[in-house]
Design brief:
Structural class: alpha/beta
Keywords: Amino-acid biosynthesis, Arginine biosynthesis, Cytoplasm, NADP, Oxidoreductase
EC number: 1.2.1.38
CATH class of the largest domain: Alpha Beta
Order of helices and strands: EHEHHEHHEHEHEHEHEHEEHEEEH
Bound molecules: NADPH dihydro-nicotinamide-adenine-dinucleotide phosphate, N-acetyl-L-glutamyl 5-phosphate
GO cellular component, one term: cytoplasm
Active site: 150
Number of strands: 13
CATH architecture of the largest domain: 2-Layer Sandwich
Distance between the termini: 34 Å
GO molecular function, one term: NAD binding
Length: 346
């Protein structure tokens, strides 16, 4: 059994990690940590776990945890993981960070977009960006995984084959993405009060969202160029789900079938990526509660653009599910172990 510790277990991502790992046949949760709920059992915080997980939440002690656990998941706000992780911890346990501290390769870029200091830039070289379908060979050999963000997972998976195969103009990319409110986490803030976000849709952090450099970094690596994209996130009054609508100018005339062959080249064997048939476009409810990323597209002959739609559950493929997929790769398990949840509909 893989001994697992979850730091920040009481947030939405932590809760989802517990839900998935409790059903994982090879994992055993040995420690759940919290900041505000030390001494409380997990089922007192999340009553859906009554009779299922009565583990008492403890104060975080990552040094001690690294002696006892095989893998530590960090589900903390940005800026904390880079203070906590160090080389000595990584010698003893593998770390999967679900925040953003190790995703960007350049600490200056991180500091610029996150407005906070990076406390362990020396670890950025060894951190692997844990987008499983694209980086599994590197993930396997690493002790520090930077689990991708939710918008970024959906966007990069949706566009990656087109950039790898040089099909679209790299600087023409526009991503219009929508997220459910759980994407903002459980901590209280005015923007996510019921009245502030129900029955309304809004764009936010226009031309300034911190997922922009992450998408540019990974798609730039795919096409071996520095690229800039326009990325606009929106808050949607639903609990879970990300829908990314991605636009790109085609470099030459292509048919839908030709593009589908490109997607198949990269994703045909991927269990968690489902390519939609012609005329079918992903919906968030088709992936809710599951680790799937659904992708559909249309070739617009009139404008010479391709429009790709991607959908994921932000808490599963966009966070905890992908983190467990990373754990499976790290420990040589079948990648789908514990991750075969069928999407909930409705
Ligand atoms: N929500 C989502 O869809 C996604 C989130 N992420 C990322 O995952 C991470 C966790 O997100 P999420 O679960 O939504 O966030 P939440 O706000 O719901 O949870 C944060 C967790 O971190 C703990 N915590 C907060 N501040 C501190 C601190 N100063 N020191 C130690 N622990 C602290 C909280 O403890 P307590 O409850 O005890 O206060 C809680 O357990 C973030 O980096 C987020 O950006 C990534 C992908 C998707
Ligand atoms: C709706 C909402 O507020 N979403 C969050 C994204 C959450 C996420 O996946 O991102 P990180 O892991 O990079 O924090 C946001 O826009 O900041």
């Amino acid at each position: 059994m893989i001994r697992v510790g979850i730091v920040g277990a009481t947030g939405y991502v932590g809760e989802e990690l517990v839900r998935i790992l409790m059903q994982h046949p090879e994992s055993h949760i040995i420690n759940l940590t919290s900041q505000s709920y030390v001494g409380k059992s997990f089922s007192q915080i999340y009553h859906n776990f009554e009779g299922i997980c009565n583990t008492i939440c403890e104060e975080e002690d990552i040094e001690k945890l690294s002696e006892e656990a095989d893998v530590i998941f960090l589900a903390l706000p940005h800026g904390i993981a880079s203070k906590k992780v160090n080389a000595s911890i990584l010698k003893k346990a593998k770390v999967i960070d679900l925040g953003a501290d190790f995703r960007l390769k350049n600490a200056n870029v991180y500091e610029q977009w996150y407005n906070t200091e990076h406390f362990s830039p020396e670890l950025l070289k060894e951190a692997v960006y844990g987008l499983c379908e694209i980086k599994r060979d590197q993930i396997q050999k690493s002790n520090l995984i930077a689990n991708p963000g939710c918008y970024t997972t959906c966007t990069i998976l949706s566009l990656y084959p087109l950039l790898k195969e040089n099909v679209i103009d790299e600087d023409s990319i526009i991503v219009d993405a929508k997220s459910g409110v759980s994407g903002a986490g459980r901590a209280l803030s005015l923007d996510i009060h019921y009245i502030e976000c129900t029955e309304s849709i809004k764009a936010y952090k226009i031309a300034s969202h911190r997922h922009t450099p992450e998408i540019e970094q990974e798609l730039g690596e795919a096409c071996k160029k520095d690229i800039t994209i326009s990325f606009t996130p929106h808050l949607i009054p639903m609990n879970r789900g990300i829908l990314a609508t991605c636009y790109g100018k085609l470099k030459k005339k292509v048919t839908w079938d030709e593009i589908m062959n490109i997607y198949k080249k990269y994703y045909e064997k991927e269990q968690f990526i489902r390519l939609m048939n012609k005329g079918v476009y992903p919906e968030t409810r088709w992936v809710k509660g599951s680790n799937y990323c659904d992708i559909g597209f249309s070739v617009d002959e009139r404008t010479g653009r391709i429009i790709v739609i991607g959908a994921i559950d932000n808490l599963v493929k966009g966070a905890a599910g992908q983190a467990v997929q990373n754990m499976n790769i790290l420990f040589g398990l079948k990648e789908n172990t514990g991750l075969n949840q069928i999407p909930m509909f409705p």
